[in-house]
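Escalation from tier 1.

The customer reports that the assembly of two entities below gives different structure tokens on two consecutive runs. Tier 1 could not reproduce it. I'm attaching the input and our single run for tier 2 to review.
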Amino acid sequence: GDSVTQMEGPVTLSEEAFLTINCTYTATGYPSLFWYVQYPGEGLQLLLKATKADDKGSNKGFEATYRKETTSFHLEKGSVQVSDSAVYFCALLRTGANNLFFGTGTRLTVIP
Amino acid sequence: DAGVTQSPTHLIKTRGQQVTLRCSPKSGHDTVSWYQQALGQGPQFIFQYYEEEERQRGNFPDRFSGHQFPNYSSELNVNALLLGDSALYLCASSLSPTGDGALFFGEGSRLTVL
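Tier 1 run:
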């Protein structure tokens, strides 16, 4: 069945450090891939997405590239800020389906 | 423009009781999905409503049921509550049932079952 595996957290970084959160997936066909973010006290928000192999999604300085050969969609940011502290979820949408499969989430804390 | 609103934000029930959670979708959205997020886990899909009908269902027992009203708002009902039903229940809305995965989520209703 479909599944998403995220790197376990929590992750603690100093401000301006480089961020990578790993995500790999298992799915039939060609799913669309997403990163959602959950800031403290807020609902889940779509951060970025990619719908086909080699696509790069980007938003707010974050980016992730859809790698079909390694079934991965790792999230990266070159310089994190305190305001990036949140829980990040990788998710997939199987072709023809209309529900998301989420990973378990990775909590990021950025310290000044 | 109001986003997705859910009520109540927190509630406590005892085993065997029934609960109803409510959701108003983002303005202009006609499709509502419900997800269960257990502590430390990612959200799991419960079901989706469109045109007042359940369109797709995840791996949840029949104790979980729902409804969508003509104004697109939705309710999630859980009967015969179990301790394991304690979780954050998320409502998400979208422009259509065959969406592109771009869901708008509410802040959730946190249910504690004692």
